[in-house]
Amino acid sequence: MADLKATLLDIAKAIVESPDAVEVTVEENENSISLTLxxxxxxxGMVIGRHGKIANAIRTVMRAAxxxxxxxxxxxxx
Length: 78
Known about the structure:
By secondary structure, the chain is of the alpha+beta class. Helix content is 38%, strand content 24%.
């Protein structure tokens, strides 16, 4: 099983300018996994991207990484 928290941390740290401020929290239910990504206020725009393209790409990669778990994955950016 893929470590989804570590995967999201690696992706986010590669995008932002202050990687020390990146935090990921995980909430897991029987059917889904909810990941919350918190970054520095100055880096929120970098993680979301123009028209949300980077955020959608992150969500797509995380869904692909979670296929082996058999659960739905939701990524919230704060």
